[in-house]
Amino acid sequence: MTTAIIAEDEPLLAEELADALVRLWPELEIAGRARDGIEAVRMVEAHNPDVVFLDIQMPGMTGLDVAKQLGARAHIVFVTAFDQHAIAAFEHGAIDYVLKPVALPRLATAVARVKERLGRSPADLSGLLRDLAANRGDGRTYLRWVNASMGQTIKLITVEEICYFKADSKYTLVVTPAGESLIKKPIKELCDELDPSQFWQIHRSTLVNVNFVAGVTRDFRGHLQLKVKQRNESLPVSESYTHLFRQM
N or C: which end of the chain has fewer CB within 10 A? Predict the structure, then answer.
């Protein structure tokens, strides 16, 4: 049986799309409905669907972020209110697109094309995603999430959840209010990939999320120590980075 995931943050539109798919493709099994990009990635990991109906504009991770994460694991139909994104996706090899509000004849066309391509490998959207990233604002896109190891489990963590990164032997420690996990990406690489307005380097081995900075104090030797919200530990600030906290 062919399976699908619907990723749409507006419940009424998700319901409308699901009802329309039941009418047009009754043998399709909808394995889940995701309300944001992060949940969409987790559902794909859990259900391994054949098709993902993917809204481009979603909180947490956009549909484009999700498509980049999924690679060629599933056929993708973009659902969007923005025609220029949809047409670009279609021309670069995505199965199809559906514009909001969903029109039954247009969805029927998309369904027919999905069925036709199910026997083939999913389209590679890497070229499209690079082009769209290059056309955003200043042309830069920053890291939005990491895949971190927690024991035998791989956990997807958005950068907004992360208090700080700290070098730990051959790995990098990812610290959140809820716990700690490990990634293989080094601090130097993270410095290049994270938004510098959100993550400050305070030591050669430490990057801190400014949203988790509770304040700074000086120890008995006069060295700065950074207090982290929702954590008990303090982090040392190297002399090279003390200028970041002169206004605090």
Answer: N
* pTM: predicted TM-score of the whole model, two decimal places: 0.59
Is 220 part of any domain? yes
Alpha helices in 61-153 (DSSP H): 63-70, 83-91, 104-117, 126-134
The mean pLDDT values, 10 residues at a time, for the chain of 248 residues are 94 93 96 92 93 86 84 89 66 75 90 92 78 54 82 86 94 95 93 87 95 90 92 93 73
Domain CATH number, residue 182: 2.40.50.1020
The domain of 44 spans: 3-134
